[in-house]
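QA checklist item 7 of 12: single-chain prediction sanity check.
[x] sequence parsed
[x] length recorded as 765
[x] structure emitted
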Amino acid sequence: MSTSTPPTIRQLAFVGTYQPRKCGIATFTTDLCQAVKGADTEIVVIAMNDQTEGYEYSDDVRFAIGDQDLASYRRAAQFLNASRCEGVSLQHEYGIFGGPAGSHIIGLLQELRLPVVTTFHTVLSEPDQDQRHVLQQIAKLSDRVVVMSQKAIEFLPSIYDIDPGKIDFIPHGIPDFPFVNANQLKSRFDVSGRAVLFTFGLLSPAKGLEHVIRALPEIKKQVPNVLYMILGQTHPHCIRESGETYRHGLQRLARELDVSDNLMFHNRFVDTRDLVDFIGAADVYITPYLCEEQITSGTLAWAVGAGKAVVSTPYWYAQELLADERGILVPFENSGAIADACCLLLTDEEQAQCIRERAYQYGRSMTWPSVAQQYLSSFRRAAVDRGTQPPSLAPNKKIQRRRGELPAVNLLHLSRMTDHTGLLQHARYTIPDYDHGYTTDDNARALTLTTTLGELGELPTQDVEELSMRYLAFLSFAFNKDARRFRNFLAYDHRRWLEDIGSEDSHGRAVWALGAASSRLKSSDLQVMAADLLCQALPAVEGLSSIRAWAHTLLGLANAMEGPYVPPGVHGVAMQLGKRLYDLYLAHTTENWRWFENHLTYANARLPQALLVIGNKLDQKEWVDAAITSLTWLCELQCADKDYFVPIGSNGFFHKDGERARFDQQPVEACATVCACLDAFDATHDQRWYHEAERAFEWFLGNNDLNRSLYDPRTGGCRDGLHPDRVNQNQGAESTISFLLSLTRMRLADQTLILDPAQDILSFS
């Protein structure tokens, strides 16, 4: 009988709290993510924040949600919909999401278009109306639900009316503990020669630790060297409400009972390696919790998996995990019973050893590698249940994307980078950097963006016009009327120009922006001013020698031809520059090198884009054919074996017959490719070009060599590029505009697609 290999799941997203946040769900989510990574599946983490400043997360965290900020839940859904994740694992606990009973998380799930597997860490037997409604809605919006106890499997159908067929049982994960003698590790914690009782986890009154302390005098009579070691910080919510009142009360109780020498606190949050050693040093593990309705306990799972002799109150999870003599259950709030159980285990080594061995063997099915595989199996079932397959990025796939899955346009960072003079050039992280001042290059790019935003029509017209006016005013200020050329670099201090004539490329970009503004801005005043400035700048373009300056100019002239104020001589200049570009292509192209030069450097796709657009305007079919051939070659060159976009790196570029630079990868390359491919889509109506644009756009969202998102959904900004080992965290003007222009062009393209009202699905006409 043949067996088939389960389909590979390439990337999953996880939504929940995450370390270094200190809570049990954060520890669980972090451990599960690392286990899934160990199974060769990439991860993306959406972390829940309970404080404005957030946490110092690892690179796994790509998006953070403010727990009380409902809008950020929806932004997270947009981010995930636009990512290449194949499913979302939601870690649900009532206390970590905002709204009544954590209802804000429903907003994320309602917007999400990916398979969802939700883990319920708490399932109440007597929920209030809000708790019941929220859990039911989450289950309804999830493809599968995971629970860690049989009691939860019983409750979900009977109390919450959830279909038993969508419930998966997966045990709480644990490290693969060695089975060790506790005495081997006690010296590390200065407890050699002591009989160690142990509890770990965040401290709160619900843990019932006072009942163990009240048991210590009786235990001390029979085992004088007993030590109760408590590891863990006080729960952050308790700290905010009452400080260290609970811990101080435990210490005061120990003094009153004369057992202070038998009690040791380690008031800290430890990593997994240290925690394994702490557990290993314990003779008896105790969970004296007060509430029966505890459906899971990570601390108890770890203790059982480590092969500890356990004493516990009979909350639901403990009843299941300690069944078949894998531990000793004692009544709630019963210090006498705790004392009897601890004395038995500390004095009867044979019985204690039998309990340890049974617990350890049971725990082998709970190790994280096994649990990770069970979660991956649950996601495969979710895909089958939904009737979907993992998404393919093949260039000829049919569009089946839902309206609204692209991120919304967010101009927060662009606005922060723009002052009364214009757009600042650089940022340090998200903070504008005054040291490098302004450039015509970036203000021209910004004006091109705002003209496109005006076409999109999704933002208030007044806001778009205000920005357009600012950038157009900068270009007017930058134009040197004597030289008939644009300056480029403007210092922040005293607004000093650092040159009389800027680069040829900056002149071409300014002409591009003015051509777009003269034809597309809604304000006639702005259109007239842009057309007048374009007319003054036009004579200089014939003397430009930069091939990219020609391309930028041609894009501007093609735009200007569509407007009401076409400067004289535009068609002649366009024909002249277009022929130059086409002649260069003929001079350099070979069977294996379909390009305009003997090297590829920056903004490469702008060259075929310009030849394509102007060729269409001037009815030059051979130019259009050459542009399509060249763009096809470039897209094939920029596609990795795993079918994602890899632009030419700026650290060396790519010279004919030389080695191609893989890094540093720049957002301007992805933007140029998105725009060029969408223009090819408009010109040919060939679906392939839309998908090529999608591939390049997904580079911003993490479908790249590092699987890291450059887009910052908090601000709408974009990080400055990919290095071999990291993302450049600065969000400069060029990068941010590159992302926003790409996004705007993609959203405009979506407006041309047909919407199936029955399914909200986009498709081609």
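[x] summary fact logged: Residues 368-386 form the longest helix (19 residues).
[ ] second reviewer sign-off
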